[in-house]
């Protein structure tokens, strides 16, 4: 059975770059690595509806934190068997975002901390009811929210298909989400966490 590792962080924090770096290092060490990114835009109807809502479609769907969280959770539920299959055939399965992102963003939207009802609801829904595999380790990229926002804005300017959505445009939400993320790290929510900067080379070697 492989090791399930998740990279978490804000939009523009550098999650994809970190995932690519880790994959390259582990494969160079002879490990087999599989990757998956959430939300699975273009693959999951639930993810696509969530994205459309965040870009102004589907009436007031976006106004409900719980409705949006459910769509993201259903995307992962549909991928649960694929994750288990990858764990059975690879040394490492590396996910770009997972359940903690839903917990952090939902709590932040509702003005709650990591010990609030929203985080517990997400855990019960995704890990218990949907039986998603629990990560062996979760990594938080500690990129400052202002830097992450600048990166996301620059990325959107260079690529029309990656226009900022309602969450990415909401600076207060990004700061609140980052605060919840840090609280999840402090609480070792659902598994051990490592907080890391994109230049913390020494830590990268200790993750598996």
From TrEMBL:
Keywords: ATP-binding, Kinase, Nucleotide biosynthesis, Nucleotide-binding, Transferase
Keyword ATP-binding in annotation: yes
Occurrences of domain Thymidylate kinase-like (ranges): 7-165
Listed PROSITE patterns: THYMIDYLATE_KINASE
Enzyme class: transferase
GO molecular function: dTMP kinase activity
Any Pfam family: Thymidylate_kin
EC number: 2.7.4.9
The family this protein is said to belong to: Belongs to the thymidylate kinase family.
Protein's name according to its UniProt entry: Thymidylate kinase
UniProt lineage: Bacteria, Bacillati, Actinomycetota, Actinomycetes, Mycobacteriales
